[in-house]
Amino acid sequence: MLRNNVFQGVDLQCQLNNRAHRTDEMEMERLVVRRGQPFSLLLQFKDAPPQPPDHQLALVLQMGKKGEVVVRVSGSRAAPGNWWFSEKVAQSEVLLNVHSPADAPVGLYSLTVLLLSDEGHIIEKTTPQTFYLLYNPWCAADTVYMWDEGLLQEYVLNENGTLYQDSWDQIKSLPWNFGQFEKGVVDICFKVLDNSPSALKNSEMDINKRADPIYVSRTITAMVNSNDDRGILSGRWDGNYSDGVPPTRWTGSVPILRRWSEGGTKSVRYGQCWVFSAVACTILRCLGIPTRCITNYSSAHDTDGNINVDFLLNEKLEIISEGRKDSIWNYHCWVESWMRREDLPKGYDGWQVLDPTPQERSDGVFCCGPCPVRAVKEGDIGMKYDAPFVFSEVNADVIYWFVHSNGKRTQTSLDSSTVGRNISTKSAHGEDREDITAEYKYPEGSMKEREVYAKAGKRVTKKNEGPSQLQLSLKHVQAVYGTDFDVVVEVQNVGGEDASAQLTVTSNVVTYNSLHRGECQRKTAELTVPAQRVHKEVIRLLYDHYGACVSDHHLIRVTALLQSSGSQNMLLKEVNIPLKMPKLHVKMTGEAVVSRKLTAIISFNNPLPVTLQRGVFTVEGSGLTEEEAIPHLEPIAPGQHVAVKFTFKPSRAGLRKLLVDFDSDRLRDVKGEATIIVRKKRF
After folding, report:
1. Which residues of 20-32 are buried (b: 16+ CB within 10 A; e: fewer)?
2. Cα separation of 76 and 87, whole Å?
3. Catalytic residue set
4. Residue 241 zone, left/alpha/beta (φ > 0; ψ -120 to 50; rest)
């Protein structure tokens, strides 16, 4: 008769397993493993282990707060899709190699080892131990499998990212700390899934569906915004952020995730598209799904599904709203995740568009994707999910209509090449930007592009013939925030006779997603342009005019309308001018070693002709320091140089980035960064 209490304990061998499963940056005290790859457990006995056939070992796994899902692990090689384990006996220990299927649900598992009699009765069982199971893009049988180690290093393991902003012809990079391996982030990521409407309604069904990255990624796009659920971020675009954090202040995902979790799943205020996409990237990389952030310049928001963006302008060149209106965002950010699409016909595997910014509802919820990038390029808008909307974002035509005082509309211009420009992501092979426009669309104006439009059922609209004798263009140099600068409007007469026309030029402060914040200047002129000559009008934009109302995105839109005398024919041109911002300078003093103090000196000069008040520096860095604010209480005069010191202790070795932000009453979104190589502590 076997006596009770034969078990001494279970060693999950966290350090050994986590290194083998590439999760050692995430945890070393808890077991975090990837599906489809075996991991080992060391079962310790007080005496010699009981031997079969009289006694057998068994494993039981449970998922869910109430153990809704129970998995019994076979002690011999199981059929594909089932868990199983093998054992090796050595004196008072048994080494168990546990094999998980490559399609197992991801999540938090509770593991119990049972000692069974030859009749299958439970003699004794161990105290339950918990571990996390993640997706495994290194496993060929996993639906998120990616074959290139270099790509996996970037799209799963890299915590330091780059987002892209401003305009298609003046692209600005924004460093971002994804921080998917920071302490406690994996817990928060699964907490996000646990708080989804599906999980709260039917936990067992939700857990089983977590085997599918299509389901999980779509759930994440819905949960990153808070429009329908207990989501992470509230979006706001009106410039009033007094009851929260301005979207431009964030430099990483981890402070946002922690605020959401520690605040009882109350949404964090505030986010905009790049923040939504970056937080989604953090969660998806943490779960093991290869993911990258995408910026689409001149991104269309088509509200009526006609794959056109229609703008109605009145005689003051103001956009007229007739119900929900289309718009062109200076840029828009989403993510792509890598996975097989076994729910679609062959050929749609690979990168999938996922957009967590709440723009339009999909199946009644503010979410978008996953939509195959290949479906967008080929015009296959019937493919799940939300292909027509994504197709419009990169391919819509832009049509401007002039609405006269009598209500009559005149089409002033049609542009089929503006939308979807310089679609960008960080390269997997360095810090450079990679242009992936060709993955979304064929070259503008090519025969293949026209075929794709027809395939997508696009309504072809002919361009209204404007004053062909006159041509209109806008030119400007790079504008620096805080200075005055010129915009040159050129009217060229390509005909053989003199031509008369009226030119109206306006400048407006706008947000990156085309919300108007106020008109800065307006100029109207009656012109007579000699044949084969060019007339130039110079518009000087003054800081005194735009400084008081400029948005957090530091963007000026100049619109020019040219109307031929005695004719209804018109030409309209617009240009968005991003104002170049100053940078923070970050200098490190001392040697970067784990757990040893390191000091950063952060400095900058006030570039504005006004005094700055209520300054605050915010710093953070994965493996370096948690988010911390450093107030600068003294006023900063025009041209004044300021410097602050910040001391911290790095927590993890390797290549790290310290990100810094400065905000004040009149100047926001000033960024800086320092790349730091942290060495392991010498003993």
Report:
1. bbbbbbbbeebbb
2. 9
3. 273, 332, 355
4. alpha
Nearest to 135, CA basis, from 213, 73, 60, 192: 213
Tokens of 386: 């939300």
The answer to whether residue 341 scores a pLDDT higher than 80 is yes
Tokens of 534: 């060019």
Spatial separation of the C-alpha atoms in residues 393 and 638, rounded to whole Å: 41
Beta strands in 340-445 (DSSP E): 350-354, 361-362, 365-366, 371-372, 397-403, 409-415, 421-426, 433-435
Compute CA distances 113 → 2, 43, 109, 393, 607, whole Å: 17, 9, 13, 53, 66
Beta bridge partners of 490: 473, 536
pTM > 0.70: yes
Rounded to the nearest integer, the mean pLDDT of the chain is 91
User: With pLDDT > 70 as the criterion, what percentage of the chain qualifies?
Assistant: 97
Q: Read off the pLDDT of residues 381-417 as tens digits, 9 standing for 90 and up.
A: 999 999 999 999 999 888 878 888 888 888 877 777 8
Is the pLDDT score of 317 beyond 90?
no
pLDDT digits 0-9 by tens, 202-212 = 999 999 999 99
Which one of 52-61, 153-162, 535-544 scores highest in mean pLDDT? 153-162
Handedness of CA 219, 225, 227, 231 (dihedral sign): positive
Q: Is the distance from CB of 190 to CB of 108 less than 8 angstroms?
A: yes
Give residue 321's pLDDT: 66
Q: Give the tokens for residue 489.
A: 């409007």
Residue 398 half-sphere exposure, CB side, CA atoms within 13 Å? 18
Mean pLDDT of 342-350: 97
Helix 273-287 and helix 254-262: axis angle, to 10°? 80
Angstrom distances, CA of residue 120 to CA of 117, 128, 462: 5, 20, 78
pLDDT at res. 2: 46
Q: Which domains does the chain have, with CATH numbers?
A: 7-134 (2.60.40.10), 159-455 (3.90.260.10), 470-580 (2.60.40.10), 585-678 (2.60.40.10)
Is there a cis peptide before residue 52, judged by omega within 30 degrees of 0? Answer: no
User: Strand order of the sheet with strand 93-99?
Assistant: 7-11, 39-45, 93-99, 84-90
- Judge if the upstream peptide bond of residue 650 is cis by omega within 30 degrees of 0: no
More confident residue, 664 or 312: 664
